[in-house]
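Cadherin 6
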Amino acid sequence: MRTYRYFLLLFWVGQPYSTFSTSLSQRTSVFPAKKRASELSGNSKNELNRSKRSWMWNQFFLLEEYTGSDYQYVGKLHSDQDRGDGSLKYILSGDGAGDLFIINENTGDIQATKRLDREEKPVYILRAQAINRRTGKPVEPESEFIIKIHDINDNEPIFTKEVYTATVPEMSDVGTFVVQVTATDADDPTYGNSAKVVYSILQGQPYFSVESETGIIKTALLNMDRENRERYQVVIQAKDMGGQMGGLSGTTTVNITLTDVNDNPPRFPQSRNI
């Protein structure tokens, strides 16, 4: 009976906030354990060959903009052929290997050497291998895994325009559409609320209101008469983190002009008796 050996990436979780991983039960679905290998031995030759190729690991995470004084710990490579006698050498290749990511060739420990910015590069794909130090031959098949940079809230919302201009007819009903403003956030929209933007009005009440989720500005007061006041300056704020305390914010100005409607009958300057 043939025996298959496996190349394991052990993920260190003792250091708070520096790294994250999926559960072992989830990982076994993409990286076969020994019991799984014996089950595969009874299947077709094609399925067995697929299991021996390099595996795509579930994602591992590092915090972007890490400010610690030490290198940020990623994980540990380990082969079941490692007897602890120094006969094996661990090798790392792929995105940033040897520069951003270094490995201790004796222990298999991987560390990140620099602060990483998710906005510059969100994902790194690396490959790991263990070789016999004496012969230079691999003792395990090459294994591939992903490091994803975990987002922090380091980008404030930015409006598509610094100043918006809009018009709305005078005497419009409450709730009449005026204009829609839009702010974007460069943080990761798939993680937490860092990129969730909420709109609010800082200046322009009680004449106008803004929808918190859409940025749509509407009239909020009846009988706004152009003859009494023609121009309004509205300031809108966009705040991330869903508007929660600690979120970052940006503002824009909206200049709104009331347009004339035919609401005044003609008047003679003076009456004249005949």
